[in-house]
Amino acid sequence: MRWRFLLMLVCAVLGVGLAPLALAAFAHVNPSASDALRVLSVAEGLLARRVGASGIDAYFRGLMYLGLSCALIWTAAYVKPRS
C-alpha cells in the first residue's frame, strides 16, 4: 500500500514537471513567444542537449514531453491507493 502511494507521488511530480518542458519546446517553434517562455525554452534546449535529444526537432520534442506527461499522470491516477 505504501509503495503505491510513493509510485503515485513520483509519477505525478514527474508528469507535472514535464508539462512546462512541453510548453517550452512548443515556444521554441514560435518566434513571437513571450520572454518568459523564451527563457524556459532555452532551459529546455540545454536539457535536451544534455540528454542527447537535441537532434530531434523542437516540435517533436514537445510532442514527446506531452505524451510522457500524459502517460505519467495517467499512471499516477491508475496506481492511486484506493480505500
UniProtKB/TrEMBL annotation:
UniProt KW keywords: Membrane, Signal, Transmembrane, Transmembrane helix
Superkingdom of the organism of origin: Bacteria
Signal peptide span: 1-24
Transmembrane regions: 58-79
Protein's name according to its UniProt entry: Uncharacterized protein
Taxonomic lineage: Bacteria, Thermotogati, Deinococcota, Deinococci, Deinococcales
